[in-house]
Amino acid sequence: MKEITSRWNKVVGWAGVLIVWLVLSGTALADPPGAVVTPSKLQLVTAVMCEDIVNRLPYNEAVVFSITGGKVSCFTLFDPVLERTAVYHNWYYRDNLSTKIKLLINPPKWGTYSSIQLREADKGPWRVEVTDSDGNVLQTIRFSITD
Amino acid sequence: MEGFIQFFREIRWQDVVDIGLNSYILFRFYILFRRTNVFKILIGVALLWVLQQAAGYLGLIVTSWVVQAITTIAALIIVVVFRNEIRSVLQAKNIRSILWGVSFKQPQTPVQAIVESAFDLAKRRIGAIIVVQGKESLSEAVQQGIPCNAFITREMITSIFWPDNPVHDGAVIIEGDRIAEVGVVLPLSLRQDLPSYYGTRHRAAIGIAEMTDALVVVVSEERGTILAIRGNQIQRVLRPEELTDILNAHTGIEGQQDAAETKKARLEVAAAALVSFAVITGAWFSITKGLETLTTLDIPIEYMNRNPAMEIIETSVSAIRIQLSGSDTLIRSVRQDQVRVRIDLDGAVVGKNSYTITTENISLPPGLFIKSFQPDVVEVTLDTPDRKEIPIQADWTGKLPENLRIESVRIEPARIPIVGGGRILSKIQTVYTEKIPLDTILSSRMLTVNLALSPASLKVGPGYREKVLVEITVKPREIRKEGTGQPASSQ
Fold it and tell me: Is the dihedral of CA A31, A36, A38, A44 positive or negative?
């Protein structure tokens, strides 16, 4: 817990919010009634690691990041979001939990990200587990920090 | 005097048994082989060994080296050259006579039966060669004999040489009171001074007599004459009494064996027993009571009685370093596999188990002693075997060129079953590849990479390889211009 707290300080933009693409989908409306299977739960449609978030979009998606970049971000997009809820970005360094970031998301569609500042000791393999509020792992994204 | 008493106090009952048993074995070897050529060669080898020791002591380098080489190969030569003689000695005796009992009397050859047979055969003009063994074994001089081991009777000898008998052409060998072999092929004499009417039979009889101390009685088929041949002497026998005297003289019977000869034989055996005891006692003292010498061995630890449901995952040490003391001879001859360190894992639990090593855990060959050992505590970690399917992640090193980024990586297979200790596997959620250097990656490509399993006790499941295929997708990296593109948002 102590470790998680210290890691917490390094997080940039942990607050999660962000951008919302509240776009009522014309496609959905166009579907004939009864033909659409309405998702019954939260759907994660995009989860990528990137160097930064620019114009609300992931910038330079990659799986290997140089420590000289200073930070790395995890971008996730949920569609649909049925109700206001929380998701978590759990950052693991070599199978050890480094930080756990809570992010709030809102209906009907929501994109959000978390980032960490990089130190010399962070070189090596990482993964981010994206979980829902109940702790169910929605996706795991693997990446590495190198020279 | 006190030292003398102390010395005898140090001798254990096992030492007494050791000396006694080996003295008896040496004595029995003498009894079994005393009248054979093997024994003479063994005496020769023993003398060579003494010569070698003397040469070494005197600093005769080449002599010592040569004698040592000869002594080394002598044992092999004895077995190869005298294999027939060794076999016949062992085959002729039963287990009881090999292990026990000494014969002081030679079995008496029934001379009369031989004499009567010879004259009967001569009368019938039937050729014959009867070889009566002396003190030397004949096994190395003759060939192709058929073992017979029959009692000597006139009828038996006559029937052997009867013309229609399949073995009538060969010689018979007589050992003691038995016909040992029939149909024997003898070496021919190469003498040039023999009468021209001597045929192959006579030449064969003279040949074996030249080579050994045997007495050969030859019956001529053509002339019906009888010859007695011994060494280089050929004597024509005209009357049965003559042949009886010759045979008696050869077999040492002279009518009856006297008590003096038996006494002589008893003394010979007693002397052999004493010499055997002295030789073994000397050898025992030189081996066990030589200069005290120290040596250090690293002995691997053996684990016993492990619960089959558990595996040894880790040990604090793999070997115990033991310092041993003992006589120079024993220390020089001790091998690592003769010293054993055992730990009983009966009652061990999953997790770390600590064992204190004592001398009871260490077994040594007799005559060696433990001076010290380390470490004295061994920690053994046990675990239950398990299997878990674990995702694989590429591990990178180095630096990618500034203008490139690895957009995605696909690993085939993405997950792999790993077998190992359950406690270890429960803590492992990712299997990493060996480090993949980034510096050489300039475009999308596929690589075959080994897995880096840690700890080493982990293995990939059956049917899987410790190599995976890594498909790398490389894209140009977008370089952001200063002052443009702000992070989307942050709180």
Answer: negative
Tens of pLDDT along chain A (147 residues) come to 444 444 444 444 443 433 333 333 333 333 333 334 445 588 999 999 999 998 889 999 999 999 998 999 999 999 999 999 999 999 999 989 999 999 999 989 999 999 999 999 999 999 999 999 999 999 999 999 998
Contact flag B491-A17 (C-beta cutoff 8 Å):
yes
Domain final position from B225, B251, B277 = B251
Give the residue from chain A lying closest to B479, CA to CA. Answer: A60
Confidence at residue B247, expressed as pLDDT on a 0 to 100 scale? 85
| Test mutation, A104, A110, A144, chain B, max B CBs within 10 A | A144
Q: Tell me: do B26 and B117 sit in the same domain.
A: no
CATH of the domain at B345: 2.170.120.30
In this structure, are strands B292-304 and B340-344 parallel, antiparallel, or unpaired?
Answer: parallel
The predicted structure's pLDDT at residue A24: 31
Q: Domain of B177: which CATH number?
A: 3.40.1700.10
Whether residue B196 sits in one domain with residue B298: no
Inside any domain, residue B483: no
Answer with the one of B228, B251, B274 that is the final residue of a domain.
B251
**SS3 for B398?**
coil
Q: Which residues of A touch B (CB under 8 A)?
A: 12-19, 52-57, 59-64, 66, 92, 94-95, 113, 124-125, 127, 140, 142, 144, 146-147
Q: What is the DSSP letter of B433?
A: E
- pTM to 2 decimal places: 0.47
Domains in chain B, number: 4
Closest-CA residue to A88 (of A134, A131, A141, A47): A131
Provide DSSP, A47-70: EEEEEEEETTEEEEE-SEEEGGG-
In a domain, B490, yes or no: no
How far is the C-alpha of B380 from the C-alpha of B425, rounded, in Å? 18
Assign residue B438 the CATH number of its domain: 2.170.120.40
Task: Kindly report which listed range (B5-14, B270-279, B468-477) carries the lowest average pLDDT score.
Answer: B5-14
* pLDDT of B68 over the 70 cut: yes
Residue B489 lies in a domain: no
Instruction: State pLDDT tens for residues B95-139.
Output: 777 777 666 655 567 888 888 889 989 888 899 999 988 877 777
Counting one residue from chain A and one from chain B, the pairs whose CB atoms sit within 8 A come to 92
Percent of chain B with pLDDT over 90: 25
Residue B317's identity, in one-letter code, is V
pLDDT at A10: 47
Contact of A14 with A100, CB cutoff 8 Å: no
| Residue in this structure with the two tokens 């046990």, named with its chain if needed | B382
Question: Residue B215: inside a domain, yes or no?
Answer: yes
Interface test with A, best of B388, B392, B393, B453 (most A CBs within 10 A): B393
Cβ contact, residue pair B391, A140, below 8 Å: yes
Question: Is the same domain home to B89 and B151?
Answer: no
Do B65 and B189 share a domain, yes or no? Answer: no
- The reply to whether B167 and B177 lie within a common domain is yes
- In a shared domain, residues B131 and B243: yes
B446 lies in the same domain as B327: no
- One domain for residues B389 and B375: no
Spatial separation of the C-alpha atoms in residues B304 and B302, rounded to whole Å: 7
Q: Given B406, B477, B490, which is nearest A15 (Cβ)? A: B490
User: Looking at the DSSP assignment, which residues form a beta bridge with residue A126?
Assistant: A93, A143
- Compute chain B's Rg from CA coordinates: 41
Domain membership of residue B36 as a residue range: 2-102+261-285
